[in-house]
Amino acid sequence: MTRAGQPISPAAAGAIGMHAEHTGLLLGRGADGDAVLLRLFRPQPTRVALIGGLWLARVTVFRALALGAQVFVRTSDERRWHGLGEVAVGNPDRVRVVTGGRPAVAGRVGEPVLHVHDIEGQRAFDLRPGEAWQTTLTISAQLTDTAADALAVADAALVQRMWAQQAVYVAARLGVDPDASSEVENLPDDTVALLSDGQARVAWISATDIEQQMFGPPGRL
């Protein structure tokens, strides 16, 4: 929440440093100083696996909201997501906790849809061909069976610190050279590795003041 306890205005959300849908969601800066971008929303259905802590998951969803996303969350703990839409963009309906069947909603440029799967032990539903501007984000704290299922179909993976053997497995599933994943074992809490398009890039997340107020200091848990 902001210092004044009020929702973030659209202008403030846009100033967080997010990029337009066609370029991607800004994760942070690489060692070379260049922006590291995740193509979270695309004209085709997109699947992203996130293996890391709640802090990273919530920052990622918050930044997706700044891109205009409608977020639907399936979770075993509603408290993890309660109030995020209202605090972030002043609209509680922008983040909805859902159960049962798939929401009947279409994504479009400027109004993409993000389906967050936050339930261990249960496979996330898959998107259908042609579901443009819709993305599934499967969240796992560790390399569990749920994470492995998500990696099997993922277009990209966001990975925080993990054992070297696990990092090699994730890299192999994403078609990335295992040697490129070696530094994942020692990643600080404020960094994330993006594996996509056959490459691995490490980003320093550099949380904004607003994100620090909402989510606290970076963490792996």
Would you kindly provide a written description of the structure presented here, covering whatever features stand out?
The protein is α/β, with parallel strands linked by helices and 221 residues long. It has one domain: Rossmann fold, CATH 3.40.50.300. The protein has six helices and ten strands, in the order αβββαβαβββαβαββα. The strands form two sheets. An eight-stranded mixed β-sheet has the order 5-4-6-7-3-8-9-10, sandwiched between helices. A hairpin with a 5-residue loop joins strand 1 and strand 2. It starts with 9 loop residues before the first helix and ends in a 6-residue tail after the last helix. Residues 1-22 have low confidence and may be disordered.
Can you summarize this structure?
The protein has 221 residues and is α/β, with parallel strands linked by helices.
Q: How do the strands and helices of this protein lay out in sequence?
A:
Layout: H1 10-14, E1 25-29, E2 35-38, E3 46-51, H2 54-66, E4 70-75, H3 84-89, E5 95-97, E6 113-118, E7 134-140, H4 145-153, E8 156-159, H5 164-173, E9 191-196, E10 199-204, H6 209-215
Parallel strand pairs: 3-7, 3-8, 4-5, 4-6, 6-7
Antiparallel strand pairs: 1-2, 8-9, 9-10
Please supply descriptive tags for the structure shown above.
alpha/beta, single chain, 221 residues, eight-stranded mixed beta sheet, disordered N terminus, Rossmann fold, two-stranded antiparallel sheet, 6 helices
Identify the CATH architecture.
Answer: 3-Layer(aba) Sandwich
In DSSP terms, counting alpha (H) and pi (I) runs of 4 or more, how many helices?
6
CATH class: Alpha Beta
Spatial separation of the terminal alpha carbons: 21 Å
CATH fold assignment? Rossmann fold
| Percent of residues in beta strands | 15-25%
Helix/sheet category: alpha/beta
- Number of structural units classed as domains: 1
Average of pLDDT: 87
Oligomeric description of these chains: single chain
Strand arrangement within the widest β-sheet reads 5-4-6-7-3-8-9-10
